[in-house]
Amino acid sequence: MTEDESLMNGQTSYGAVELEERRTDDKNQGKGKGKYEAHFPNLVDPLNLRIYTNNIRFDNKNRDSHEKPWSKRKQLITSSIAFNTRPGNANVVCLQEVLHNQLEDILFNLNHGNEGEWTYYGVGRSDGLTRGEYAPILFKDQEWSVIENRTFWLSETPDVPSRGWDAALERIVTMVTLQSRVNPLIKINFFNTHYDHKGIEARRKSSLLIIDRMTNYNDYPSFLCGDFNTQPTDEPYHILKEHGFKDSRTLADSLNSYGHWSTFTGFDKHHEDNTIIDYIWAPYFAKNGNKPVSHELSVNNANEKFEEQVPGIEGGESKDLSLIEDGLALTEDSDIADINYYNVNLHQQYNIVIKAFGILHSYYDFYMSDHRPVVADYIVERSLW
């Protein structure tokens, strides 16, 4: 008996469940053979997921013009997080440029001074402990339990503190696998990062390294958040998109989008930089419920894409591709080039739909950071079998 079968029988352990295959009979159309389709037989307790990401600006002792000290900015930063992660959602907060003292201040304020429900995972990028900037992931104990967490560096030696390629500084990715306490069948990976601001090659290689790490991490759907120092016209952005990630900003539409169009402002209200460099990337199969499903993949295309994206899979070498081989019809609202087919079987147990996206306000007499917060709301469902 699997862990999830135990769960469905009233026991307490959780794990992977199998996708139900539903055969559709095409005899009436004269095709003589049915096909298998991804099907969600019984979705219970859908999860209202809210992801909030913000580069809060490090506690700079040599401040830029118009930049206020952290002592003045920290309450606005914390209030923005608290207001936008109120009860009713399962909240995950990804922050960048966070020094250890800033992390302590934010947690103290969120928890009202006492040991409260907010916790985090993250390390300082300089030593893997507390020195240097964090890219922490914050969440509430009452909403999530931790399955796994780790950090890697965006470099040629990703498992030790290091600076990569032509980067000016050490850069990290924080990874956490969280299990919902509302519906313990739902397990999601969250990746948080901050690309280098100078290294062109480093940003390109960072996208490729993240793709490799995410592909080989585990079977659960993944969200990737952060400050990518990359605009939508730049190569690192297109590398992520071509490997199947969906930019929440473009996945949403005018019916479910709110706020500003740019994420980076600088600190001068009268001369804003106004660029888009902060993103929330969703899995390849995430969709907009307002848009019609319009793309169906053939078996051959699915196999070809799987072999292309997953190292070690050549010419249909053994891998659990039974659903593809049996004729799994995947429906998608994006072009086939944007889809990564690794672990496609498990992912078809999940239904992920964007409900809202926003680039929030950050100016209250002064800028609380040189970046605006970015928020995305998703409905996450998982089938029972």
Automatic annotation (TrEMBL):
<dbReference type="GO" id="GO:0000175">
    <property type="term" value="F:3'-5'-RNA exonuclease activity"/>
</dbReference>
<dbReference type="Pfam" id="PF03372">
    <property type="entry name" value="Exo_endo_phos"/>
</dbReference>
<dbReference type="InterPro" id="IPR050410">
    <property type="entry name" value="CCR4/nocturin_mRNA_transcr"/>
</dbReference>
<protein>
    <recommendedName>
        <fullName>Endonuclease/exonuclease/phosphatase domain-containing protein</fullName>
    </recommendedName>
</protein>
<feature type="region of interest" description="Disordered">
    <location>
        <begin position="1"/>
        <end position="37"/>
    </location>
</feature>
<feature type="domain" description="Endonuclease/exonuclease/phosphatase">
    <location>
        <begin position="84"/>
        <end position="283"/>
    </location>
</feature>
<feature type="compositionally biased region" description="Basic and acidic residues">
    <location>
        <begin position="19"/>
        <end position="37"/>
    </location>
</feature>
<dbReference type="InterPro" id="IPR036691">
    <property type="entry name" value="Endo/exonu/phosph_ase_sf"/>
</dbReference>
<dbReference type="InterPro" id="IPR005135">
    <property type="entry name" value="Endo/exonuclease/phosphatase"/>
</dbReference>
